[in-house]
Amino acid sequence: MQRLIPAFPSGIFKRFFRRVRAGLSFRRLLRWMLLALVGWTVLTLLLALTIHVYGRVERDPEPADVIIVLGAGVRADGRAGPALTRRSTHAADLWKEGFAPFIICSGGTPGHTRRSEADACVEILRGLGVPAEAIFLEDASRSTEENAIQSHKIMAANDWQTAILVSDGFHMLRAEWIFRLRGVDVSLSPVIDSRPGATEYTLQIGREVVALHWQAFKEIFNLPITYVKSI
Length: 231
What we know:
Layout (H helix, E strand, L loop, with lengths): L9 H47 L9 E5 L11 H15 L6 E4 L10 H11 L7 E4 L5 H14 L4 E5 L5 H10 L3 E4 L9 H23 L11
Parallel strand pairs: 1-2, 1-4, 2-3, 4-5
Helix pairs in contact: 1-6, 2-3
């Protein structure tokens, strides 16, 4: 019998099903990407909360060989900024209470001024009655990791084994991690009786989240970088 209905080309079916499968694969990929983004967002928010809570925990500092003040901003005119002022003042109080006989002021020279953070810290300590022979200047570091590296050198040269780490609360989680990675036995004494305004504090928490991501990436891939601007 003569065929009255022409055969439907099989190639059309193949192209149709290829497009369907491609569409399904794309939607599946998009779904996994969205799930990954949501998961990363949740983890980032939890990390930010952890940074905040960790830095607000009241701690009784343990007696140590030395107090290490982590540097912070210096104004263009060379005066210490608010963060460095409160950190240095807190360190002076710890020294007066007898928690350690020495203080290391750690922090190099920002690009906008010739004065190092460490030198500005020394000025505050001297003004608060800490004698020059109790203060050690570490003005070569440009990052928290370099703070740890250079401070550890001073500790090793003086046969010091333990240190009290002084910084703002929001900095404590990352600072402790880095110092311990560098072999420094630290206890923590965050400045928590005062803190920056809400906007500045939020920005600082965000900065710490980014910096912790970078530190984790660096450790995973064993990168020898110790300084990234603003971290």
